[in-house]
């Protein structure tokens, strides 16, 4: 029996890094088909996230993943880019949801359904946990592709976050096309 109301969980990955796209996922879980092991993606190992992402894709009623480029992030700021990715993921769901639970304290504008912002939602609602996992694994895949293109930055080690290694390589090589030029450490690496 299908649920009478579809609820989508929405979460993002990649707000803090200095490089790469910001990702968001929307997931509608099947209440008849529990996925064990769901948790906030940050609390899972990479291997566990990968395994769960596969299970979510197989067992969810619907899911969608969207991302926004560093160029757009620089244009509209990271918060707006994150909200845009969240809205796009929701709108791409192959099954329309009647409600959305969104991790955090902000709701994207012009959402076509009632939404609730849930602080630490990725620790409270399985549908947000699932979205958290899909967004994170998609972003990790994206950043590993960037590593193939720009190996000198060490993206495989820091995933674009502002680690000492990343900042050192940024100073040494200057920013790549996937860096977020509006972020202070990247801006500072350009100044001569």
TrEMBL record:
Manganese or magnesium. Binds 1 divalent metal ion per monomer in the absence of substrate. May bind a second metal ion after substrate binding. Signal peptide: none annotated. Transmembrane segments: none annotated. It holds the Pfam family RNase_HII. It is an enzyme of class 3 (hydrolase). It catalyses: Endonucleolytic cleavage to 5'-phosphomonoester. GO terms for molecular function: manganese ion binding; RNA binding; RNA-DNA hybrid ribonuclease activity. The keyword Metal-binding applies. Its main location: cytoplasm. HAMAP family: RNase_HII_B. This is Ribonuclease HII. The lineage of its organism: Bacteria, Pseudomonadati, Pseudomonadota, Betaproteobacteria, Burkholderiales. The gene is rnhB.
């Amino acid at each position: 029996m299908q649920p009478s109301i579809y609820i989508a969980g929405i979460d993002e990955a990649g707000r803090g890094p200095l490089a790469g796209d910001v990702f968001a996922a929307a997931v509608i879980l099947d209440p008849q088909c529990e996925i064990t092991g769901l948790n906030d993606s940050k609390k899972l190992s990479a291997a566990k996230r990968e395994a769960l992402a596969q299970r979510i894709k197989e067992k969810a009623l619907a899911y969608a993943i969207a991302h926004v480029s560093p160029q757009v992030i620089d244009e509209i700021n990271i918060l707006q880019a994150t909200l845009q990715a969240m809205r796009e993921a929701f709108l791409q769901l192959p099954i329309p949801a009647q409600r959305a639970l969104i991790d955090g304290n902000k709701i994207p504008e012009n959402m076509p359904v009632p939404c609730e912002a849930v602080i630490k939602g990725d620790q409270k609602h399985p549908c947000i946990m699932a979205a958290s996992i899909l967004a994170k694994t998609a972003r990790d895949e994206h950043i590993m592709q960037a590593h193939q293109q720009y190996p000198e930055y060490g993206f495989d080690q820091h995933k674009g976050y502002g680690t000492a290694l990343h900042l050192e390589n940024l100073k040494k090589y200057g920013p790549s096309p996937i860096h977020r030029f509006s972020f202070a450490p990247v801006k500072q690496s350009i100044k001569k």
